[in-house]
Amino acid sequence: QVQPVESGGGLVQAGGSLRLSCAASGRTFSNYAVGWCRQAPGKEREFVAGISRSATDTDYADSVKGRFTISRDDATVYLQMNSLKPEDTAVYYCNAGQNFGMVILGAGDYWGQGTQVTVSS
Asked: What is the pLDDT at residue 72?
């Protein structure tokens, strides 16, 4: 009923910034918790950041705390990524769900197609 669509990925040098967007297709995100996960080649998918329906609560992986910020409006969820490192290179996926606890585990019900982020040294 809600289809996340990611955009904003690309190639950036270490220390640079990118802003990812996750737009809702079909229904708005207003009634959903939304999160970001990423997967690098040869690695397991890992949780990056999540935000609750009301935006009262956010959660971040330890590896991105202080560098990434998740925010939202009714239509779009954003992931501002600063001070990027080569180890941030991955495909980033947006997921939405009615349960914040599931989203912060990277187990939301609805997933986007992913957007590639590549950070060069």
From this structure: 95
